[in-house]
TrEMBL record:
Keyword field contains Transmembrane helix: yes
Cellular localization per UniProt: Membrane
UniProt-listed InterPro entries: Uncharacterised_pept_Zn_put (IPR007343)
Keywords on record: Aminopeptidase, Hydrolase, Membrane, Protease, Transmembrane, Transmembrane helix
Underlying gene: lpqM
Primary residence: membrane
Descriptive protein name: Aminopeptidase
Domain of life of the source: Bacteria
Native source species: Amycolatopsis methanolica 239
One of the Pfam families matching this protein, by short name: Zn_peptidase
Membrane topology qualifier: Single-pass membrane protein
PANTHER family in the cross-refs: INNER MEMBRANE PROTEIN (PTHR30168:SF0), PUTATIVE MEMBRANE PROTEIN YPFJ (PTHR30168)
Molecular-function GO term, any one: aminopeptidase activity
Keyword Hydrolase: yes
């Protein structure tokens, strides 16, 4: 967030009040198209161990320099699996004959140099599609094992399915609108979308190699997409932009929900209006502010203004250790129904709100900070409980969690507008999504702190509020 300094200049927020009023009034009626916590884009919520199936067949593929490492086992199975998927999906959806990639290369970026059409591999901790020789290559020495340690085997599946998505793009050519001048962001969005389409096929139980549950399994796939996001402050028009975590999870979800033809139809014009990647505004510094008493005061003002239209008594925010005399405590922030207060543990919130260490997150050495906006979102979510209580909505079921995430998204959109004293800055939305996908996140949790089981639904709920305002929060999560 950005705190506009020297702010005796209180910019006017009045014009914005009422923005979040409409939907909330409908909390107890108007239930068109409700989303059930019992499904994820039409598939039942499943709970089982996700990853390589114990009885997976031995892939029949030629891979240069392959080892017997676990990372290679998962990588080679992924290639075999995505080839299975696309050998039906390409002719089925696009009337294009499937051709496997011409070569595959496993290497250790710390070990002996290998070479392919795109050059040397020494020191290149990466996984990539190389269009020069139509090959896919991956670093089994550093990149893959690090990802697996942090996010489990599905991170490898996610990254290589994405890289294979680029190979698919070259096979589709015109049919995906791809030319020499296609901006990187379009290619990346399509590849993430193709990854989502493939994951749906796996989640439907059609893969010989992998099992993915629609709860923890998909959560892990989404988190690993997030891992390879661009750094905050990258412009979406940058030639090498890959999209923010927010943008990337969106593309993945479109593929999962609507299939590969929607992915191929993405163009710069169609995606630009929803892309959130933007450079830091001047004066944002690095986009993180201290989570302290003053910031909580600004947050309270921002929330009061944003939710004024609901015309209910706004909850007070009290720093007293997140305990509630007559209700569940959900530290670091608790909504206490008995006296309509949000009780916070400011020290714990400040810790959660430490800047994100993207490098450390990757290597596992991060202090665990999720950024200021993660901390503010947690508080905002408990505040939104108070607003929901005020309009008579249920607070203790999965829909309450998703509705809350939606309202936090709607508030974030107000906070993104010009002239806010506490304003959303580049990278903030990714902090919220990274927080949302944590198992103990409050942002999509009910009043007792129980999060909605599906991270996929949590992310979608917050995005819905962010892009469409509070209206759908009550209609879809009634
Ligand atoms: Zn890519």
């Amino acid at each position: 967030m950005t705190n506009i300094e020297g702010a005796g200049v209180r910019r006017s927020l009045v014009a914005l009040s009422g923005v979040l009023a409409l939907g909330l009034a409908g909390c107890s009626d108007g239930r068109s198209a409700p989303v059930s916590e019992g499904d994820v884009a039409g598939l039942p919520i499943s709970h089982f161990e996700s990853g390589l199936k114990p009885a997976a067949p031995e892939p029949d593929l030629d891979v240069t320099n392959v080892s017997s490492d676990e990372a290679d086992r998962v990588a080679v199975a992924t290639i075999a699996d995505v080839e299975d998927y696309w050998s039906d999906a390409l002719p089925g959806n696009f009337d294009v004959k499937f051709e496997p990639v011409k070569s595959l290369l496993s290497y250790d970026s710390d070990g002996e140099n290998q070479e392919n059409g795109c050059g040397d591999t020494k020191g290149n901790a990466n996984a990539f599609y190389c269009n020069v020789d139509d090959s896919v290559a991956w670093d089994r020495g550093v990149l893959l094992p690090t990802m697996m340690d942090q996010f489990g085997p599905l991170s490898v599946v996610t990254v290589l399915a994405h890289e294979f998505g680029h190979a698919v793009q070259y096979r589709l050519g015109d049919k995906a609108g791809i030319s020499r001048n296609t901006p990187t962001i379009v290619k990346e969005q399509q590849a993430d979308c193709f990854t989502g389409a493939y994951y749906r096929w796996v989640a439907e139980g059609k893969s010989k190699y992998f099992a993915v549950s629609t709860s923890d399994g998909l959560n892990s796939a989404l988190s690993s997409l997030f891992l390879v996001r661009d750094s905050a402050g990258t412009s979406a028009t940058d030639r090498s932009a890959h999209g923010t975590g927010f943008d990337r999870t969106y593309a993945f979800q479109i593929g999962f929900e609507q299939g590969p033809t929607e992915c191929a139809a993405m163009t710069l014009d169609s995606i630009q209006p929803r892309l959130t990647e933007r450079p830091f505004d001047s004066g944002d510094r690095d986009g993180d502010i201290e989570v302290d008493q003053e910031a909580i005061g600004l947050l309270k003002d921002s929330l009061d203004q944003a939710f004024a239209g609901a015309k209910v008594q706004a909850p007070e925010i009290v720093d007293d250790g997140a305990s509630c005399p007559n209700g569940s405590a959900t530290p670091p922030a608790t909504y206490c129904t008995s006296d309509n207060t949000v009780r916070i543990d400011l020290t714990a919130l400040a810790e959660l709100g430490q800047p994100v260490d993207q490098e450390g997150e990757f290597t596992g050495s991060s202090s665990g900070g999720h950024g200021d906006f993660a901390a503010f979102s947690e508080v905002a979510s408990r505040y939104a409980m108070g607003i929901q209580k005020g309009v008579g909505a249920s607070l203790d079921n999965a829909n309450a969690g998703l509705r809350t995430a939606c309202l936090v998204g709607a508030w974030a959109a107000v906070a993104a507008q010009e002239g806010q004293q506490m304003r959303l800055s580049a990278g903030d939305l990714d902090e919220a999504i990274s927080d949302l996908l944590r198992p103990d996140s409050l942002v999509a949790a009910d009043v007792d702190g129980k999060p909605a089981a599906s991270g996929f639904n949590r992310v979608e709920a917050m995005r819905t509020g962010y892009l469409q305002g509070s209206g759908p929060c009550s209609t879809q999560y009634g």
